[in-house]
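ENTRY TYPE: paired fold submission
RECORD: A
CONTENT: sequence, then structure tokens
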Amino acid sequence: MPTDLPERSATPSPAPSGGPQPHDHEPHTYVPGMIIGSALVFLGFLTIFLSLSGGFEIDYKPLVLYFSGLAIWAYSAIANLTIRYTVVIVVVTLALAIAHYGEVHFWHKQVIFWATVLMVVYFMLTSAAPGKRN
């Protein structure tokens, strides 16, 4: 007997895609990592800045603090895996090199100061679209 009802298929229909998918959310460690990384970068940079403006010498520990904070921040904030791990490897290598060298010269502090200024200016002038991370 023919009817006007559509036929039922044996395969279940896919779930609606309007809701959040399991792979769309960020891991819960991103925000604390960004906070801790930013705090360590700030503490290390503050010591470097004060030694530049005050003219006193520092040992390698503020630079290692700065670089470790930068590595934690980069791991949490950069979404592109190639850029993320390149930044982390470069920063850890620089921290180990400074710790092995054991001495901080004036030009080391100048390079870190101006690189941080350029990094902050870059992130202030570029903004990501809503829901999109760099």
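RECORD: B
CONTENT: sequence, then structure tokens
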Amino acid sequence: MEDIIKQYQNVQIDEKTQQKLNKPLKDKTGFNEGHEEFLKMLVGRLESGELNPHSPATLYNQAAYDKLSEEEQEKTDLTAINLMSLIRQIEALWKIDASATFQIQNLVESVFQMKSKFEQQYGDVYII
């Protein structure tokens, strides 16, 4: 294994090939039901500044969050950090190619599922 790594460690990829490799993959199957609207809402809130992907507190529905116990708020905080990590990835990919790429679809599905499962137990604590 080390021989293979050493063999290719100094290989230079030409610029056109690197640009092609950096492009997100296209997916012809599309989103699951409702997820395209979820993505549009998410991108809209990011572009308007309502959501700051580096500030998990901007994700909270403050009225619902304030009603939670301290332990539930801690769980909400940890989930918000994980959600924002995925949202930052979505934002970065959207800036490269503002379309429903394979990667964006999978990230949106992850955000949607994580948020939905959490809110089933703790209520409508996020604004997305």
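NOTES ON RECORD B: The helical segments are 2-8, 15-22, 35-48, 62-66, 70-96, 102-122. The radius of gyration is 19 Å.
STATUS: closed
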